[in-house]
Amino acid sequence: MSLNRKKNIPVLLFMFLLLLITAVFSLLIGRFDISIKECFGILWSKLFPIEPYWTKVQHNMLVLVRLPRIIIAILVGASLSVAGTSYQCIFRNPMCAPDILGASTGAAFGASLAILLGKSNMTITMWAFLSSLACVLLVLLVSRFCRGNQILNLILAGIMVGSIFSAGNSYIKMIADPNNVLPAITYWLMGSLSGADTKKMNYIWIPLLIGMVPIFLLRWKINVLTLDDEEAKTMGINTRVTRTIVILAATLLTAASVSVSGIIGWVGLVMPHIARKFVGDDCRILIPASALIGGIFLLLVDDLARNLYTIELPLGILTSLIGAPFFLYLMLRRRE
Amino acid sequence: MSIEVRNVSFAYLRGKTVLDDISFQIPDGEFVCLLGPNGVGKSTLFKCILRLLTSYSGEIFVDGADSVSLSAKELSRRVAYIPQSAAAIFNYTVRDTVLMGTTAMTNGLRSPGKKEEAFVDQALKLLDIEYLKDRMFTRISGGERQLVLIARALAQQARILLMDEPTANLDYGNQLRVLEQIKTLSASGYTILESTHNPEQAFWYADRVLAVHGGKLIADGKPEKVMDAALLKTLYQIDVSIEALHDGKAHVCLPKKLLQ
Questions:
Q1: Number of domains in chain B
Q2: Exposed (0-12), middle (13-18) or buried (19+): which is A329, by Cβ within 10 Å?
Q3: Residue B1 confidence (pLDDT) above 60
Q4: ipTM reported for the complex, 2 dp
Q5: Distance (Å) from the alpha carbon of A228 to chain B's nearest alpha carbon
Q6: Which of B93, B104, B117 sits opposite A236 (nearest CB)?
Q7: Least CB–CB distance from B103: residue in A1, A4, A224
Q8: I need a labelling partner for B48 at 20 to 30 A (CA). Which of A39, A73, A251, B167 fits?
C-alpha cells in the first residue's frame, strides 16, 4: 500500500464522521421542534422496544418526513458526485459533468411530458428516469456506428441527441398551460427534494446500488482509462468495454438521482474537484471521497433549501449559487 | 526470434499504401533503431505490431507466436509500448503511474495488490529511479518522465519494448541519459525497437538499423555498414558527410555545407 493511500484512509474516515454529524444535525433542524434526546429515542425504538417519551407527531415528522428526505439527499449527492468523477476520468476531461451524455436533458423531457399529461408524482419520477436512460442509450447507439475516436463521438452524439430532447422540452413548455402546468415544469427543472418520501426511498436505492457497485469495483481500471486510449489498449485493457460499463453505471446513477430530485447543477462537476483537492486523483480513494463529499454537500444545501425561508427554495438555484463561486475560488487559488 | 514481421503491407481506407511488403526479424536482446522521415509509416508499423491496427496483410510473430492468435492480455505481456510523451490530464504519483502497467495481470475487478507493487519496485530499481516513487508524475523532469514510462513498460513484464521517438522532447543531457538506460536494458536481454529521427543515435547506441522509405524497407544491418551518405540523402534529402572518430568507435554526421 502506498504512502498516499495510508495517509488518505484517515481522511475518508473523517469525511464519513462528518457525514454522520451532518445527518444528525439535519434531523434536528426544521420548523417542528424535535430535541436530540427525542431524536435518538425515536431512532432507537426502531431497533429495541422502549417506552415512548415523545409525541406521535414528532415520531411521524422524524421517521416519515425528515429521515427519508435526508437519506435521499445523501444518496443523490453521492451519486451525482461519483457519476461526475467517473465521467471526468473516462472522457479524460476534468470539465465533464454527469449530464455530458444528455442524462439530465432526457430526464427533463420525460418529467415535463408527464407533468403536461397530468400524471402522478410517482409517474413523473418514473418517466424522468426512463427518458433519461433512453436519451443516453440513444447516444451510445449512435456513437457505436461512428468510426474513429470513441470519446469524441460520444461527446458529439451526446450534444446532438441532448439538443433534440431539449427542443422537445421547449415545445412542451410552449404548449403547457402557463397558469398551473408551466410553473410545475419550471419548478421541477430547478430541482427540489420536497417530494422525497418513504415510498421513493424504498425503491431509489436499487438503481443507485446497481450503478454504484461496478464503479467501485472498477475504480482502479478507471485510473487506467485516463491514459491515452491507445496506450491503455497496449496494456491489455479492453478500453471500449470498460468505458461502456462505466458509462452505463454512471448514467444509471444520474438518471435515478435526477428523477427524484429534478435537475441539480454543479454537484456533479464541482464536488469531484473538491474531493480531488483533498485526496488526489487516484480513483481508488477519489471515488469513495467524492461520494462522501457529494452527500455532505447536498444534505447541507437541502437543509438551507427547507429552512432558509418559509417557502422551499429550489435546490438547483442554491447549488449553483454556492457551487459556482466556490469553483471560481478553487480556480483562482490554483494559480498561486 | 523475438519479433518477426513477414510480408506486412498496410493501406488506409482511402487507398494510400503506407507499408509495402515489409519483412524483418529481430532476435532477443537486440537494440534496433528504425529510421525514416515523418509520415513514412514508422508509427503505422508499431501500431500493426501492437495490434492497434488489424487490417494489415502479412504475418507478425511475437516470441514465436502468431500475434493474431494471442489475446490482448497475452500480447501485453510480451510487447509494451512507450509513447513519445504521456498526456497526463490528472495527477498520479510515479508509483501509481508505473502500477498502471500491471493492470492486465489482475483478474477482472481486483485492484493491484502486493505482487503488482513488487513489480513496480523491481522496475524502478532496474532504472535507478526509486527516488521518484512518491513524486507526482506531472512534477518531474521530461527525462525522468520518460524513464517512468519505460518503468511502466517493464512493470507490464513485457520483454519487447517498442519506443516511439522516446527522446524527441528531451534536452541533450536527458536524451543521452535515457538512451544509456535503454542500452543497459538491451544488454540485460530486453529487445528494443526504437524509432528515431537522429541518425547519430543509431550510430552510438543501436546494434542494428532499419530504414523505411516510401513504405519499403530500404536498409537493414549494422549502422556502420548500412548507414552512409547516400542512405541519409534518400531518407532526408540532405547532404551529409559521415566521419569515423576514435578509430571507428564512434561516427558523427556533419552537414556537407559546413565543411565547404
A1: 1
A2: exposed
A3: no
A4: 0.88
A5: 7
A6: B104
A7: A224
A8: B167
